[in-house]
Structures are given as structure tokens and as C-alpha cells.
Fold this protein.
Amino acid sequence: MLSFDSVRRFVKKLGEEVEDLDVALLNAGIAPPKYVVNESTGWEEALQVNILSTALLAILLMPKLKATAAKTGRVAQLTFTGSLGHTFLTSKDLPISEEESLLRKINSPEFFNAQRSYIVIKLLTMYVMRGLIDDFSTNEKGELDVAVNVVCPGYCVTDLGRDHPWYIVLPTKIMQLYCGRSAEEGSRSLVSATLLGEMGHGKFWTNDVFVKPGVLVVSEEGKKLQSKAWKEIMDICRKEIP
């Protein structure tokens, strides 16, 4: 996921080896403690893996998902792993003018802050979901053929923060001991999200309930940010589509 080429190769291999694709759960993600630029693409690594490569993967999987839906007569499912953390963001966390590029701003070393950047990335995941729904989720008859949603598995005991310094890892481990879910428990939410079908289309799922997305998703300001972000993401992905 660190390169667009690896995404293309994966989808090519999938097309050769898998006849039908009913469900795609896109769960890859990193949470780097420091600002690191991906040398092959020029994008900050979390932005590359969690958003740009993931968006490209989703777009490239759409033909297979749609073909399967047409074949089976059932709506296919595309699910992204997100975070409830995006609901805590406000416009103060993402100040941007109409002239600025949203992705370039998030990509800058001046903007990077490990905790904030992670949940901003998760906000972008919501934006990707909305963009895919608008551009890819229906067939030529206007009928829904791929349901798209985002799920938060909750606070799980994983090694996502393995690269963080000890003074962050230690209190995190203590917190995980008392209120963390196992990765297996968290995965149940991921699996349940893939079974929601049309009922979960365009929605945010966590703790086995639908939760209203954050203000920067549902507000007019959020909708403008989503439109800006999706246009920029698509401009990048179009260049990488075979």
C-alpha cells in the first residue's frame, strides 16, 4: 500500500485468481509517530497508505464488485475501516481557504501532528466513502449495486502504535489493559459492517449501531471540504488507473 504500483499489481492478480467478489473490506492502515514522506510518491506515508492507495484500490475493485452484483443479483459490499475520532474534529482542526489544496495542506510537515493527523486521515476516509457513493455505487440503470460504508472497530489492543516512543506506548498499554478490545473482538464489528447491505449504505457503523458522522461530514462546511478532497483524490487516482 506504500505504492500505487503494488495496488495495481494486487488488483491484477485478484482479477486473475478470483472469479467473484461479493465483499471488500479495506482495513490497511498505519499511524506513524513522525512525519515521513513516501519517496516513491511524495506523499506523507499515512496519507499514502490510508487514503490515496486505499481510494485507488477501492476504485479498481469496483468493476469486479459490480460484475459480481450483476451476476448474483445481490448488492455487493465495500467497507472501510474508520474511527469515531473523526467526530471530534471541528473547523479549527482543519483551517483552509478556498484557494488552498486540502491534500497539500495535510501533506505538509507544518500540519503534521501524530494524534490530529490520524483522525484527520479518518475524516478523509468518510470523504472517500461519500465520493465513491456519488460516482461509483450505482449501475447504468441507476440502481444501487455496491453498498459502501465505514466502520469503527473501537479501541483495540493492536500494534498500530508500535513505532511511537515509550512514553506514549506505556500509558497506551495501560489504557488498553483496562478498556481495550482484543483485535478479534474489534474484527467482529468489521465483519458485521460488511453484512449491512443497503441498510448500511453511506452510513457510519460502530458498537453495532449507526452513529451520526461528525460535523465536518454532515455540515455545509463539511460537504464543501468533502467535495474538495474527493476532487483532489480523484485527480491523483485517475493518473494511476491502468
About this structure: The beta strands are 23-26, 76-81, 146-152, 156-157, 181-182, 204-206, 209-211. The domain at 4-238 is CATH 3.40.50.720 (Rossmann fold).
